[in-house]
């Protein structure tokens, strides 16, 4: 595991963008696993800036997102599809046909999970997976549980997650109760993992995840077993570690 210290959110974003752009420059056909939420928005902004300068070409990459809320239409401004389109895809030359996100409107969970697992397999796996971390240690929407869920599944969101994500909705009651998420096996099979954390609020869970026992009670703790994990975290998030 490599832990890179970043001075602040911007420094974290730039360092992470550097790692992702190196991946895309070295392998123009990379399969890039993407995340949503507040943490990676600065990374996407930086990548857009470099794209506009002509430094990166996204035309041949494929992207596969971690998760999507159930019951939210892709064109609603709360969907993760909308987030990805607005914050990244519409600004770069990625082929939208090569971007994959679970379909939150598919009511048949078994069908959707199978479809998404097949997509990941057909892409040949993920070259680099970008991750944020939830306050409860979730990665994707793999919530603390009694066992690690292997592949794409429909998850009941934890109260903590619903509370944390209520900031993107008018009220807590409007946050979907369920989501589709890539499983732990799919994440762990990514060739490289890039975990980001920013702010003091993430410091305890980051410490527990990286140095505590490996347990499904702290889903991110499984990342300790990955042999190419890079953590980029800012001073606040690293305050329990350094
Ligand atoms: C988002 C995702 C989540 C977030 C996590 C942290 O696609 O999979 O695991 O990374 O909830 O969210 P932020 O970055 O908003 O603190």
UniProtKB/TrEMBL annotation:
Domain Glucosamine/galactosamine-6-phosphate isomerase: 14-226
UniProt family annotation: Belongs to the glucosamine/galactosamine-6-phosphate isomerase family. NagB subfamily.
Gene Ontology cellular-component terms listed: cytoplasm
Gene Ontology terms describing biological process: carbohydrate metabolic process; glucosamine catabolic process; N-acetylglucosamine catabolic process; N-acetylneuraminate catabolic process
An example Gene Ontology molecular-function term: identical protein binding
Annotated protein name in UniProt: Glucosamine-6-phosphate deaminase
Catalytic activity entry: alpha-D-glucosamine 6-phosphate + H2O = beta-D-fructose 6-phosphate + NH4(+)
Broad EC category: hydrolase
UniProt keyword annotations, A-Z: Carbohydrate metabolism, Hydrolase
Pathway in which the depicted protein is active: Amino-sugar metabolism; N-acetylneuraminate degradation; D-fructose 6-phosphate from N-acetylneuraminate: step 5/5
Enzyme Commission code: 3.5.99.6
Function as written in the Swiss-Prot or TrEMBL entry: Catalyzes the reversible isomerization-deamination of glucosamine 6-phosphate (GlcN6P) to form fructose 6-phosphate (Fru6P) and ammonium ion.
PROSITE patterns: GLC_GALNAC_ISOMERASE
Record: active site: 67, 136, 138, 143
Pfam hit, one: Glucosamine_iso
Gene designation per UniProt: nagB
């Amino acid at each position: 595991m490599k832990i890179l210290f970043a001075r602040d959110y911007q420094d974290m974003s730039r360092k992470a963008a550097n790692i992702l752009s190196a991946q895309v420059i070295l392998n123009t056909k990379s399969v890039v696993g993407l995340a949503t939420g507040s943490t990676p928005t600065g990374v996407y902004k930086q990548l857009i800036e470099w794209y506009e300068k002509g430094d990166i070409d996204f035309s041949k990459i494929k992207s596969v997102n971690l998760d999507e809320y159930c019951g939210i239409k892709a064109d609603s401004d709360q969907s993760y599809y909308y987030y990805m389109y607005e914050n990244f895809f519409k600004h770069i030359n990625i082929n939208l046909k090569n971007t994959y996100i679970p379909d939150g409107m598919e009511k048949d969970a078994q069908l959707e999970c199978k479809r998404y697992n097949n997509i990941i397999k057909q892409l040949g796996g993920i070259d680099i997976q970008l991750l944020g971390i939830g306050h409860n240690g979730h990665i994707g929407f793999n919530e603390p549980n009694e066992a690690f869920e292997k592949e794409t599944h429909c998850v009941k969101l934890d109260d903590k997650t619903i509370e944390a994500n209520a900031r993107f909705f008018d009220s807590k009651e409007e946050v979907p109760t369920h989501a589709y998420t890539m499983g732990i096996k799919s994440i762990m099979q990514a060739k490289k993992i890039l975990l980001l954390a920013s702010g003091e609020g993430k410091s305890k869970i980051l410490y527990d995840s990286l140095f505590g026992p490996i347990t499904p009670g702290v889903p991110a703790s499984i990342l300790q077993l990955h042999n190419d994990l890079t953590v980029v975290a800012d001073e606040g998030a690293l305050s329990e570690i350094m």
